[in-house]
């Protein structure tokens, strides 16, 4: 007999004759457990059948488990069906395999087969089957399984009871969950945690707190569940109070990170900073939590400072989420030099082939004006997803390379990749830049009719912008009127931008009246209208508009910008005097102004009211 593997060849007939039955069986089991190759697993299974070991209650489960590990549930089922009289252990192996790979419908079908064969389920069976009922939201089926558990005497089992509580609470049937909990003869900390989580899931924190206080024992998971409940409802004060009551021995890094993330998500970044410094042993999620808080507040310079601190810390570790956040901060700041350094760092730190980091690099380079670098990253990526395509299509569109963006979009469709709403925003933006009205209409119909994506306000804004820039003002207004929702400030701002392109003062006034009613505090639109008036030489209206913004408290805040000098990002604002070299800076600016004047360049200066 010919063997393709040395390990399998070791089971040749002569060797089999020199070993006991138990030794041979153990040898088969060892081979199966170490097997990571489907072809070899088939060979081992074939040999076990040939030599009469496949029906072994010890070997058969191992082979079935191996098929599940190789993501071959159909082969696992075929092997299971070859067993003449599968015992409860073997049935449970199948249930476990299906639930682990989220094939919950198969779990329920197999349970029906088990009942038809009159095989008695045990506590492990009920745990897997009830969990599948919860995952598929089939709580009526779960009720039937619950009845079977009662008839077979397993309802009082702690594992079964806890799983029933989780199932009923997952579909909001709290009364049934409470009944199971109350009828449990012994309630361990897992049961208490399940009941607390059940009340938290329906937002009843008062009852959850009562159950929490009744618990005869509490572990870190129970404490964390209650703390998470308060955080999810935005009650950081109660969450922090509970955290302070928590015994020090029960506090793990997950507990610290949960509270940190709560502060971060609530926007209380100062409390987040203080709490971060209190964490005794910070892990990557601690650092990422602080970085996430800064990102949400728009404090991108601080993101870079935290990243620098991480690199200098001997204990800090980072992951792909860290790099993606820092790349996003670089994109916001226009810090392309730092972004390039992070690119090299990612390559040398084992993140070069990471999908999420690749997407972040495309986004960073695109937003920093380096579209060619973004395209190089895109072409070098072996694995791409819809986010990758969105970043590249959007980047090309933003850089005025609409035709290339549309070619990439069409290629995406031809390859069978399903676009999402963001993809169509990029495609429609590309149509705007390329001035392709008919193409824009066809993509809009494709989105709604073929992919059944409900248009967002951004999609409508792109279409209005597309029609308006093409000079089809009446069509743009008509498109706005046909929208299923009322136009918001995004739509009217798009129309105002169109008025600026065509210098349509009359329409601009009408549109601005709509914007003032919806978003009077947005000074950007006042600036656009002011520019329209200025282009038309209507300086009196410009001055009146400035008076209006000041009198209504909508005066434009001092503008702030960032400039990257080498590997340092510097923030500066209008009339800023914080920099140590302020006199030198203003001296250079004054010199530039004089040079412009001597070259005959004069600014548009118009009278402004006091």
UniProtKB/TrEMBL annotation:
<dbReference type="InterPro" id="IPR002885">
    <property type="entry name" value="PPR_rpt"/>
</dbReference>
<feature type="repeat" description="PPR">
    <location>
        <begin position="283"/>
        <end position="313"/>
    </location>
</feature>
<dbReference type="InterPro" id="IPR011990">
    <property type="entry name" value="TPR-like_helical_dom_sf"/>
</dbReference>
<dbReference type="Pfam" id="PF13041">
    <property type="entry name" value="PPR_2"/>
</dbReference>
<protein>
    <submittedName>
        <fullName>Pentatricopeptide repeat-containing protein At1g08070, chloroplastic</fullName>
    </submittedName>
</protein>
<feature type="repeat" description="PPR">
    <location>
        <begin position="219"/>
        <end position="253"/>
    </location>
</feature>
<keyword id="KW-0677">Repeat</keyword>
<dbReference type="Pfam" id="PF01535">
    <property type="entry name" value="PPR"/>
</dbReference>
<dbReference type="InterPro" id="IPR046960">
    <property type="entry name" value="PPR_At4g14850-like_plant"/>
</dbReference>
<feature type="repeat" description="PPR">
    <location>
        <begin position="385"/>
        <end position="419"/>
    </location>
</feature>
<dbReference type="GO" id="GO:0009451">
    <property type="term" value="P:RNA modification"/>
</dbReference>
<feature type="repeat" description="PPR">
    <location>
        <begin position="157"/>
        <end position="191"/>
    </location>
</feature>
<dbReference type="GO" id="GO:0003723">
    <property type="term" value="F:RNA binding"/>
</dbReference>
<dbReference type="InterPro" id="IPR046848">
    <property type="entry name" value="E_motif"/>
</dbReference>
<feature type="repeat" description="PPR">
    <location>
        <begin position="87"/>
        <end position="121"/>
    </location>
</feature>
<dbReference type="Pfam" id="PF20431">
    <property type="entry name" value="E_motif"/>
</dbReference>
């Amino acid at each position: 007999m010919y063997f393709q593997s040395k390990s399998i060849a070791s089971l040749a007939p002569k060797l089999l004759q020199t070993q006991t039955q138990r030794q041979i069986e153990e040898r088969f089991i060892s081979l199966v457990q170490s097997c990571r190759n489907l072809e070899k697993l088939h060979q081992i299974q074939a040999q076990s059948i040939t030599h009469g070991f496949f029906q072994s209650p010890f070997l058969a489960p191992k082979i079935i488990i191996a098929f599940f590990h190789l993501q071959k549930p159909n082969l696992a089922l075929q092997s299971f069906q070859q067993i003449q009289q599968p015992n409860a252990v073997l049935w449970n192996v199948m249930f476990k395999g299906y639930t682990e790979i989220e094939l919950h419908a198969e779990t329920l079908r197999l349970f029906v087969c088990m009942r038809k064969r009159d095989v008695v389920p045990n506590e492990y069976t009920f745990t897997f089957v009830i969990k599948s009922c919860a995952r598929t939201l089939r709580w009526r089926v779960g009720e039937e399984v619950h009845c079977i558990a009662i008839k077979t005497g397993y309802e009082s089992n702690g594992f079964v009871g806890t799983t029933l509580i989780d199932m009923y609470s997952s579909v909001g049937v709290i009364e049934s969950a409470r009944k199971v909990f109350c009828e449990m003869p012994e309630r361990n900390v897992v049961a208490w945690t399940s009941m607390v989580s059940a009340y938290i899931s329906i937002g009843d924190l008062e009852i959850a707190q009562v159950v929490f206080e009744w618990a005869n024992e509490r572990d870190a998971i129970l404490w964390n569940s209650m703390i998470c409940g308060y955080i999810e409802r935005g009650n950081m004060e109660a969450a922090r109070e509970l955290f302070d009551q928590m015994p020090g021995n029960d506090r793990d890094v997950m507990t610290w990170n949960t509270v940190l993330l709560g502060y971060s998500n609530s926007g209380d970044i100062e409390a987040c900073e203080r709490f971060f410094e209190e964490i005794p042993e910070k892990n990557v999620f601690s650092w990422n939590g602080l970085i996430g808080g800064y990102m949400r507040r728009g404090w991108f310079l601080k993101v870079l400072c935290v990243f620098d601190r991480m690199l200098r810390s001997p204990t800090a570790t980072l992951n792909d989420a860290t790099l993606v956040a820092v790349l996003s901060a670089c994109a916001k700041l226009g810090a392309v030099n730092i972004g390039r350094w992070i690119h090299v760092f990612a390559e040398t730190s084992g993140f070069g082939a990471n999908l999420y980091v690749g997407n972040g690099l495309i986004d960073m380079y695109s937003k920093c004006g380096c579209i060619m670098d973004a395209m190089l990253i895109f072409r070098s990526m072996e694995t791409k997803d819809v986010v990758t395509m969105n970043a590249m299509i959007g980047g090309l569109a933003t850089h005025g390379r609409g035709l290339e963006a549309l070619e990439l979009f069409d290629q995406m469709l031809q390859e069978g990749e399903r676009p999402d709403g963001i993809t169509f925003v990029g495609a429609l933006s590309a149509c705007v830049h390329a001035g392709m009205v008919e193409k824009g209409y066809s993509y809009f119909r494709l989105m709604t009719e073929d992919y059944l994506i409900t248009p967002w306000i951004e999609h409508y804004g792109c279409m209005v912008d597309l029609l308006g820039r093409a000079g089809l003002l009446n069509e743009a207004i008509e498109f706005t009127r046909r929208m299923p929702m009322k136009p918001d400030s995004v739509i009217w701002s798009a129309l105002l931008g169109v008025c600026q392109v065509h210098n349509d003062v009359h329409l601009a006034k009408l549109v601005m009246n709509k914007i003032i009613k919806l978003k009077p505090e947005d000074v950007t639109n006042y600036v656009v209208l002011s520019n329209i008036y200025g282009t038309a030489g209507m300086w009196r209206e410009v001055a009146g508009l400035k008076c209006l913004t000041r009198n209504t408290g909508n005066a434009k805040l001092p503008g702030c910008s960032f400039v990257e000098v080498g590997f340092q990002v510097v923030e500066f604002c209008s009339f800023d005097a914080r920099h140590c070299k302020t006199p030198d800076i203003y001296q250079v600016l004054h010199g530039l102004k004089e040079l412009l004047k001597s070259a005959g360049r004069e600014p548009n200066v118009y009278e402004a009211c006091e």
